[in-house]
Amino acid sequence: MQPDRKKTLILLAAFALIALAVCGVRYSEARSSPQERFSDASDFRYRVDLNNSGEDELLLLPGVGRARANAIIERRAVRPFTRLEELKDVRYANGRPVFGGTAVMTLKDHVTISAPRPPRAAGGMP
Hints:
DNA polymerase, domain 1; 45% helix; rod-shaped; 2 domains; mainly alpha
């Protein structure tokens, strides 16, 4: 085998390995859960909208699990949020409050409240 051809094959193999490594990292990031990607509140790059975010986005909030996320979704379906303090009014089915004052203050830097978006039409475009 010629020396130039051997160097070319070695370089191609190296590039292929690097490409596989990069793709593998991106694949593993895409497959991780929201809690794994944002395990620390300092990892947040944006605020979660209480009136328009889905369950997966609400789960990114510190201290919010599925029960709290679902309680937020149920409450906003009846009456959208206008202020952060309204989280104190959210109740579980048994009447217990979902959030106390400390939990609400923990969320203040992580949430935003905007007007709710209208539901999409069944055909796709509103």
